[in-house]
């Protein structure tokens, strides 16, 4: 029997599985103990959770509040959702307490990242409530940060408080000051070991996750049309209001929401959590696509430099170095001159079938998980690759032909929906998406978005544009990635050998214990 260890999300895994993963498994081995510690702390504080929820909802301390047992908690990549049931004389309702997982949010390496992530998520909720009321999202009742500052929707504050806030918003708008959102500070003595959000529970009476019926219905054209139109309306509604810079929305301590955070994506946080040095400061936003691409490619370089598991061998190392050099050299070909300085548009960077709720007919009824919405160049908008059930790095040959059929179908509905929408910019997003596909710029932008898929995408889609193969140019191009590139190759191969030894030691040690 092979030696196995427990790892968060993947359960019991053996050494052969671990050694074949792109991720730094040595870092991931730390997650399960940290998660168990957090779960124990939250369960121990379940009375505090009840008191906090009563305070957020303005309920009496005698009202009944039941926290579901940890067996019923729902864990995602960065949060754990705790179902809570509340009963009072006028209320019997389920809520979701969505708690951040500090051990997944680079909190150890970069304290404050957990609050940064929550500020961006809350900022997206607050902004969409005002600017995109047509997009159904879970109601956000309140939230709190790690410094024990708490905020509540003004609907749950006294009437005189709501009146004062209405006057304040009108005055701020008149004087062109930042207009406060509908969330207000709400001091309380209850504190949790992590940042949190109190959300509406989306149950079967509203809809179900698209992923539940995905395999069953995705081959039926009438279901696809309803889904594609719903997705198109969401994408277009978010993009309707132009943004002046590349970045993320941020909820500030003065209760305003501004586009003043770095463009925060799930991939960036995952890599920073594995020890990759940070490239962007939290306050970095970008006035042009070139500056953003430059910093993203620098972050890619940091991934190669810092991840001990970044390469398989010397040939793989040279290919990765060559691709990073190539993308930097070719970036000017794929950045549209007409829109390189904006306008930029808000985009869902982590849209997938489990974030979308649909009814029985596949009408889109709710969108959840708004934590990774960013204002990005319009060229980065693309038809979701998962619509054919495959990853972006799998789209070659017959799978690419299958995706092209699905893309054309999606774009037909997208174009029709765009004709019906009134935007505050003159961009035709359908035309830009078609242009990016035709020019093959879509693959460049997928490289920027999907760092793990960068080499395979360059090999399959970018190099062939120039009638060459990656293996033919890797030796030469890799020399331009850094001075003494041959020493870098030797170093990365040595890093891999040490990593494999350390990983083997971890498996042997766990087995001995």
Question: What report would you give on this structure?
Answer:
The chain has about 525 residues and is of the alpha+beta class. The protein folds into 2 domains: about 25-200; about 210-245 and about 285-480, Alpha-Beta Complex (Aminoglycoside 3'-phosphotransferase, Chain: A, domain 2), CATH 3.90.1200. The protein has helices at about 15-20, 25-30, 30-45, 45-55, 115-130, 160-175, 210-215, 220-240, 265-275, 290-305, 315-335, 395-420, 430-440, 440-450, 455-460, 470-480, 485-510, and strands at about 5, 10-15, 65, 75, 80-85, 90-100, 140-145, 150-155, 185, 195-200, 210, 250, 255-260, 345-350, 355-360, 365, 375. The strands form 5 sheets. Strands 3, 4, 5, 6, 7, 8, 9 and 10 form an 8-stranded antiparallel β-sheet that branches. A hairpin with a 3-residue loop joins strand 4 (about 75) and strand 5 (about 80-85). The model has no long low-confidence stretch (mean pLDDT about 95).
List keywords for this structure.
alpha+beta; Aminoglycoside 3'-phosphotransferase, Chain: A, domain 2; eight-stranded antiparallel β-sheet; 17 strands; Aminoglycoside phosphotransferase domain-containing protein; AGP_Transferase; Kinase-like_dom_sf
